[in-house]
Structure formats: C-alpha cells, structure tokens
C-alpha cells in the first residue's frame, strides 16, 4: 500500500463536505473506484506525523506557513498504478491551496508543481517507478 498525505487550505468540515460530495462514504472513510481508501487523520487522535522526522516536518510547516493539525490520508492499493486517481483527488482537495506529501520524497508538493510535472531531487509527485528504480 502506498500513501499520500494531503494538507488542504481551509476548514476540516469543508474538506469532509467536499469528500462527501464526490466520493462514496463508508464508516470512517471514503472510497474512490474501490482502489483509493481515504481517511482524515489528526495529531491528537491518530498517527499523522509518526513517520516524519524533524527536517521533513520543518519543510511541511514552511510550505504551509503553520503546523497542520489534520490531513487527508489516501492509501493506494499496490495492485493498481493509481496515478490518475491520486492526481484527480489531490487536484480536487487542493483547489483552494495546500500541499501534499507522498511516500517517495520529503518535498511538500504544490498543485502547480504536480500539474507542471516538476522534478524535485530526481522525482516527480507520486513517482513510485523512479523511486523503485533508485532502490
């Protein structure tokens, strides 16, 4: 399973309403095409920053201008490519701003960087193929 962590600008309730409008809701999560599993995690009740070291956290805070308290966590089945679905969902969630982290780099990706295909440290957003080639 691969994951992305989306930190949208705006209120948590607005993001929940957006997810409810566009995705199938199940208890505690949403589904996209039975391939992406979406939840909201927070620092107080979840494990939001469990895998981020201090440097990664500093990059995230600098990109957002504050320390986020919640995020939309998207888990992507390893049985599918998932790139198109992830890009669609991230564009929807970040339409009003914010950043996203993926499993392959510590860079907080902006919508503009994702759309343009920007390469940061040799990787594009959600670039699991290039990441695996490096390993």
Structure, described:
It is a single chain. It is built from five helices and six strands, in the order βαβββαβαβαα. With 135 residues, the protein is α+β, with helices and mostly antiparallel strands. The chain has a six-stranded antiparallel sheet with strand order 2-3-4-5-1-6, sandwiched between helices. It is globular. The two termini are 17 Å apart.
List keywords for this structure.
24% strand, alpha+beta, 5 helices, 135 residues, 6-stranded antiparallel sheet
Total domains = 1
Radius of gyration from CA coordinates: 14 Å
Largest sheet geometry: 6 strands, antiparallel
Order of helices and strands: EHEEEHEHEHH
* β-strand number: 6
| Overall spatial form | globular
Please tally the helical runs, counting DSSP H or I stretches of 4 or more residues: 5
- Helix amount: 25-40%
Distance between the termini: 17 Å
Oligomer: single chain
Q: What strand order characterises the main sheet?
A: 2-3-4-5-1-6
Low-confidence stretches: none
Mean pLDDT, nearest integer? Answer: 93
What structural category characterises the helix and strand content?
Answer: alpha+beta
How much β-strand is present in the residues?
15-25%
């Amino acid at each position: 399973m691969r994951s992305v962590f989306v930190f949208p600008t705006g209120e948590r309730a607005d993001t929940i309403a957006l997810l409810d409008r566009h995705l199938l809701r199940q208890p505690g999560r949403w589904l996209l095409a039975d391939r992406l599993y979406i939840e909201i995690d927070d620092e107080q009740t979840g494990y939001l920053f469990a895998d981020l070291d201090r440097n990664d956290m500093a990059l995230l805070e600098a990109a957002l201008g504050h320390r986020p308290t919640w995020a939309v966590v998207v888990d992507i089945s390893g049985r599918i490519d998932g790139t198109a679905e992830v890009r669609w969902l991230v564009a929807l969630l970040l339409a009003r701003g914010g950043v996203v982290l993926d499993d392959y780099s510590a860079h907080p990706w902006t919508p503009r960087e994702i759309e343009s295909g920007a390469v940061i440290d040799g990787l594009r957003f959600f670039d699991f193929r290039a990441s695996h080639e490096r390993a």
